[in-house]
């Protein structure tokens, strides 16, 4: 299809349109920024402004696909921030940027004629970010608006896109970041005037009727955004939008007449590899028969091999769709039938949890690893920085589909599938206060023939239960496909679609959830959208399949294991008074380092006073917990402690009970008998069992060794003389007559002996 293109907006008029939707004002402005693009707009919500620019250029010769590129990039200056890291410049796209690019591409791509081959590039990013309103939705609105005002572009829009949250059962339009933190729904819906073209939603086990209600409300609100874009086009003085029909291709008709019967038989082969091999063989035969080698000096005849291959692909689409509408699926199943499912757990011995989930020719090996707070994923961007205690990574190596390709980093598809599975599983995870582990799940797709992202959801649930993560409910997922006859309106919904049904069908509608409701939903279409009837039927059919999948999963493991893997670290979390954090850390970190070394643990402390203790052994973690609790709880009257002698004086010994807290054992409380010197009982560094017998109003602690031994029923091994009767020998009291000299010496006028023993308590500690 040939289309003339004007690379610059011919009007260059500065136009601003706005509309209030759900109490939030959306503004679209054009003609001020990026005026050499084919179409450019700035979309504003609050103080968040996103610039979207689209350029359309002639396509390259021989393309058999629509070359559209969407790139969303965030410049953190928009939020008044510097880029993190050593290099103070934005680098490769983040996960958020990739997901927003995919989110924009998915609803727009189907709204171009099937034979359109012009190159379209859409670039977007926030130029102002208030950290309250997410710019991702503004990108979708802006992309549609730029295509609407781009001259000579046959875009089948406009397209409205809206985000809905739900707080206390009430839907919220364009929810802010704070509102989303309280919402049990995050739903994005893109739609044309008549049909829904894209859904991306995550909920906390939302029942199907409530999810459907939210989708229909979003479609209704999108009409306002469609009207706003048409108003923008009208103010620019542009005429009606082009909606041309694809031109018929005589070559496709010829291939259908000559080879459709043979291809039908090929597409009935049940095994994927055999079916693909037979399809490739038939294609080579078709190319050889229609494109004979030219003789010497002859020009290559028409059609070319490239044209024949493109027509053969169109023939495959037509034949597969005809077979499905006639009631024939390639693998012989009925429309609602699931493929054979097998589930296995405890597959790998060294990881903390593992599962193998197989559905037909789709196989996911999923592992779970449990870590500490140090393993959390920090996420930074134009919104506020935060950390993730749960993340799921999806990988699909090329051998999973029998292909040879270079090995590179994860692509957009892998990142998108991983996030879909992650957000679908997240609602059933335990609260971090109950289960403080950082959780990483990895799904490796070892074989793929349809809906590997939903296999990842199922495998992740099994792996988490195998790891002993106390999830609230198992989550299963399934993909529903669609083949619709556009002329008659007749359609068939297909449960558990395989590759050909995905490639040549009209939709891939993924639904994940528990027995109670939906946790994740994602819709991609290849036609111009879905009606309410199709959406309703899909949700019902997906629920039936999901319940059956959950039954299969629970046969492998009925509930989370009672104990986490022996390979996983032991974590204990306690709450202390935030004012005592400094005491726990100690001067220069001395106290916390000593605790970690002596107990073999790792301690993380939050500003709120939450202390997380990690250890390879449960005993080490419990010992560390007891010591921290004792330290932060303070010295308790009547409690027995095992302390360390820190200082020995003539009148007694000072014993450290807890880090930073000590007390004094008077010489009379060391033993029941009479001793000449404190050093007869203890020396600096000795461990001593003592009981707290008094705490005065100045928090000075008086201890007794002899009472602690008696209470524990332990024998005192210190040799001592019998204690003289009370009052015998003069003013010495229970210590007997005070000598005038000797090893006790005369009472000095100052120093350690002039600290005043006073009734009821030890000497002040600040003069030790």
First-residue to last-residue Cα separation: 95 Å
CATH superfamily of the largest domain: GHMP Kinase, N-terminal domain
Unreliable residue stretches = 1-9, 728-768
Count of DSSP strands? 29
Number of domains: 5
**Rg of Cα set:** 37 Å
Summary, kept brief:
This protein is 28% helix and 26% strand. The chain is of the alpha+beta class and 768 residues long. The protein folds into five domains: 221 residues, GHMP Kinase, N-terminal domain (Ribosomal Protein S5, domain 2), CATH 3.30.230.70; 62 residues; 205 residues, GHMP Kinase, N-terminal domain (Ribosomal Protein S5, domain 2); 64 residues, K Homology domain, type 1 (Ribosomal Protein S8, Chain: A, domain 1, 2-Layer Sandwich); 128 residues, Beta Barrel (OB fold (Dihydrolipoamide Acetyltransferase, E2P)), CATH 2.40.50.
Note the topology.
Blueprint: E1 15-21, E2 24-30, E3 39-45, E4 48-57, E5 68-72, H1 95-108, E6 119-128, H2 136-148, E7 160-167, E8 170-173, H3 177-180, E9 185-191, E10 196-206, H4 208-235, H5 250-266, H6 272-290, H7 305-325, E11 341-345, E12 353-359, E13 362-371, E14 377-379, E15 386-388, E16 390-395, H8 412-425, E17 438-447, H9 452-466, E18 476-484, E19 491-495, H10 499-504, E20 507-513, E21 518-525, H11 532-556, E22 570-575, H12 581-585, H13 590-599, E23 601-605, E24 610-615, H14 618-633, E25 640-648, E26 652-658, E27 661-666, E28 687-695, E29 701-704, H15 705-712
Parallel strand pairs: 5-6, 16-17, 27-29
Antiparallel strand pairs: 1-2, 2-3, 3-4, 4-6, 7-8, 7-9, 9-10, 10-21, 11-12, 12-13, 13-17, 14-15, 18-19, 18-20, 20-21, 22-24, 23-24, 25-26, 25-28, 26-27, 28-29
């Amino acid at each position: 299809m040939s289309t003339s293109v004007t690379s610059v907006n011919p009007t260059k008029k500065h136009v601003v349109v706005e509309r209030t939707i759900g109490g939030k004002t959306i503004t679209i402005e054009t003609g001020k920024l990026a005026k050499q693009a084919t179409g450019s707009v700035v979309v504003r919500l609050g103080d968040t402004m996103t610039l979207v620019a689209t350029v359309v250029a002639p396509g390259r010769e021989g393309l058999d696909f629509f070359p559209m590129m969407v790139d969303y990039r965030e410049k953190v200056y928009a939020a008044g921030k510097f880029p993190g890291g050593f290099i103070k410049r934005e680098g490769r796209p983040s996960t958020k940027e990739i997901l927003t690019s995919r989110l924009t591409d998915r609803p727009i791509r189907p709204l171009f004629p099937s034979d359109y081959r012009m190159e379209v590039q859409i670039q977007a990013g926030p130029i102002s970010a208030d950290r309250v309103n997410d710019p991702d939705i503004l990108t979708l609105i802006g992309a549609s608006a730029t295509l609407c005002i781009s001259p000579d572009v046959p875009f089948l829009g406009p397209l409205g896109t809206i985000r809905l949250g739900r707080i206390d059962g009430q839907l919220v339009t364009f929810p802010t970041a704070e509102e989303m933190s309280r919402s049990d729904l995050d739903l994005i819906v893109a739609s044309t005037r008549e049909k829904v073209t894209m859904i991306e939603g995550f909920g906390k086990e939302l029942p199907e009727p409530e999810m459907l209600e939210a989708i229909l409300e979003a479609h209704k609100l999108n009409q306002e955004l469609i009207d706003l874009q048409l108003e923008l086009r009208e103010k620019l003085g542009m005429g009606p939008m082009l909606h041309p029909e694809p031109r018929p291709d005589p070559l496709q008709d010829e291939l259908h007449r000559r080879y459709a019967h043979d291809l039908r038989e090929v597409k009935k082969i049940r095994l994927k590899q055999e079916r693909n091999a037979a399809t490739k063989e038939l294609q080579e035969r078709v190319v050889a028969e229609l494109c004979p080698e030219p003789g010497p000096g002859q020009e290559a005849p028409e059609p070319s091999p490239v044209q024949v291959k493109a027509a053969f692909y169109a023939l495959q689409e037509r034949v597969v769709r005809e077979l499905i509408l006639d009631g024939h699926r390639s693998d012989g199943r009925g429309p609602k039938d699931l493929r054979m499912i097998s589930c296995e757990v405890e597959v790998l011995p060294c990881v903390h949890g593992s599962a193998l989930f197989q559905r037909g020719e789709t196989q996911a090996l999923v592992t779970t690893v449990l870590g500490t707070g140090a393993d959390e994923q920090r996420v930074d961007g134009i919104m506020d920085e935060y950390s993730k205690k749960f993340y799921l990574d999806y990988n699909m190596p090329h051998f999973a589909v029998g292909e040879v390709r270079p090995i590179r980093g994860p692509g957009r598809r892998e990142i998108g599938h991983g996030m879909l599975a992650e957000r679908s599983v997240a609602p059933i995870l335990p609260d971090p206060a109950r289960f403080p582990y950082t959780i990483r799940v990895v799904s490796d797709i070892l074989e793929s023939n349809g809906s590997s992202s939903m296999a990842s959801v199922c495998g992740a649930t099994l792996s988490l239960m195998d790891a002993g993560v106390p999830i609230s409910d198992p989550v299963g997922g399934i993909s529903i496909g669609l083949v619709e006859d556009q002329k008659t309106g007749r359609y068939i919904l297909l449960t558990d679609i395989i590759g050909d049904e995905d490639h040549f069908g009209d939709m891939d509608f993924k639904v994940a959830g528990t027995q109670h409701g939906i946790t994740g939903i994602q819709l991609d279409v290849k036609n111009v959208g879905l009606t309410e009837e199709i959406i309703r039927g899909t949700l019902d059919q997906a629920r039936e399949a999901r319940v059956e999948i959950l039954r299969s999963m629970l046969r492998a493991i009925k509930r989370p294991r009672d104990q986490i893997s022996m390979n996983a670290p032991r974590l204990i979390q306690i709450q202390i008074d935030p004012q005592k954090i400094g005491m726990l850390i100690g001067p220069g970190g001395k106290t916390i380092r000593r605790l970690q070394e002596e107990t073999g643990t790792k301690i993380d402390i939050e500003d709120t006073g939450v202390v997380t203790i990690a250890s390879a052994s449960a005993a080490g973690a419990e010992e560390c917990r007891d010591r921290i609790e004792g330290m932060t709880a303070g010295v308790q009257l009547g409690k027995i402690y095992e302390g360390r002698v820190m200082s020995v004086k003539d009148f007694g010994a000072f014993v450290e009970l807890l880090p930073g807290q000590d007390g004094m054992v008077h010489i009379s409380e060391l033993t029941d008998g009479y001793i000449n010197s404190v050093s007869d009982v203890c020396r600096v560094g000795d461990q001593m069992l003592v009981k707290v017998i008094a705490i005065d109003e100045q928090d000075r602690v008086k201890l007794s060794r002899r009472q602690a031994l008696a209470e524990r029923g332990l024998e005192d091994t210190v040799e001592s003389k019998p204690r003289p009767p009370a009052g015998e020998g003069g003013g010495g009291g229970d210590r007997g007559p005070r000598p005038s000299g000797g090893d006790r010496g005369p009472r000095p006028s100052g120093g350690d002996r002039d600290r005043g023993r006073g009734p009821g308590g030890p000497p002040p500690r600040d003069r030790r």
